[in-house]
Write a structure and sequence with these properties.
single chain, two-stranded antiparallel ribbon, 9 helices, alpha/beta, six-stranded parallel beta sheet
């Protein structure tokens, strides 16, 4: 099967950096995203949106339902974008103040973030800004922002070899490829949300196995009944298993991961199903347990009763002896 490529519609990506520093490593990640988009990814128009001019959120600045001009311009750019690429540094285990301020301004009625695809990249210390990404994803739940799940991009900017030059530009080839992977995944997910699945390219099975990408986008393979059984359970009503949809490499990874989980469940289920229980033995065991408790209860009651009888007889004997002595000496 020969590779087939289909021209994709152009999507607009708004790139937003949470750091205001000129030499910011996270801004360097966005510059790399611009470079790889121009060099090897077709169908994307990326625009950097500067959030530094935005005032701090203050509803007193809203007059007659209108926002300050700089806020209106920012909101309009977000509204016109099909998807968002965030570069989010980590400040105190969370997103930066400027980024949160920009998010809040654009979420004012009407919310211009809603129903857009989004991706996050970050660079920082040991965790690479990961905790800020988790907070940003949590914020996106309320904003109806739809973040791609994979690939994730965290970069330890201070671990050798050097990842950035003195100007904050990314120089690590492996990290550049990872940025490209994020951009391709964001593109595919954006087209899917826009209902443009038919524009996703298809590829041959050998290309998918080699994890290569073409200049037009990610390597894709349409599922058929034959190859579906190799990568997923054919009888499973799973979204990624429908043969009339196209799937990109990241969907295939998710599909295979889900297959492993389902296989583990099936193995456990079959083991439980095939495990033979002898119900007669269980019944005898329960009856013996109940009988032992009844036996101990009877023994306890008998011992209590015998003790009381002995006490009564001893008291009766003492009374009889007393009467005999009284009659003898009375």
């Amino acid at each position: 099967m020969e590779a087939v490529t289909i021209a994709k519609p152009v999507i607009k990506v708004a790139a937003i950096c949470g750091s205001l520093r000129k030499g910011s490593y996270n801004r360097g990640l966005l510059r790399t995203a611009f470079e790889v988009t121009k060099e090897s990814v077709n169908g994307i128009e990326m625009e950097y949106i500067d959030i530094s001019p935005l005032p701090m959120l203050n509803t007193d600045l809203e007059v007659d339902g209108k926002y300050p001009p700089v806020v209106e311009a920012f909101r309009q750019k977000v509204l016109e974008a099909d998807s968002i690429l965030f570069a989010s540094p980590e400040y105190n285990y969370s997103v930066t103040g400027p980024l949160k301020n920009a998010i809040d301004w654009a979420s004012r009625p009407p919310n211009v973030w809603a129903d857009k695809a989004a991706a996050i990249v970050s660079a920082g210390g040991s965790f690479g800004g990961g905790r800020s990404q988790y907070h940003l994803r949590q914020i996106g739940v309320y904003l109806d922002l739809h973040f791609i799940n994979k690939p994730e991009f965290f970069l330890n900017a201070f671990q050798p070899p050097a990842k950035f030059d003195s100007d904050g530009n990314l120089i690590d080839p492996a990290s550049k490829q990872r940025i490209k992977d994020v951009v391709l995944a964001l593109q595919a997910f954006t087209l899917r949300l826009k209902g443009c699945n038919s524009y996703l390219p298809t590829i041959s099975e050998p290309s998918r196995q080699s994890d290569t990408v073409s200049e037009e986008g990610a390597v894709l393979t349409p599922f058929t009944k034959e190859n579906l059984e190799q990568s997923f359970d054919a009888g499973t009503e799973y979204k990624l298993g429908r043969t009339y949809e196209y799937h990109d490499w990241y969907d295939l990874e998710t599909c295979n991961n889900a297959r492993r989980v389902i296989s583990q469940f099936h193995d456990k289920h079959l083991k439980l199903k095939n495990k033979n229980y002898n119900h007669n033995k269980e019944r005898v065991y329960k009856m013996a347990l109940v009988a032992s408790w009844v036996f101990f209860l009877i023994v306890f009651l008998l011992s209590y009763w015998v003790k009381n009888v002995e006490d009564a007889w001893s008291k009766r004997n003492m009374l009889g002896k007393s009467l005999d002595l009284w009659m003898a000496y009375g």
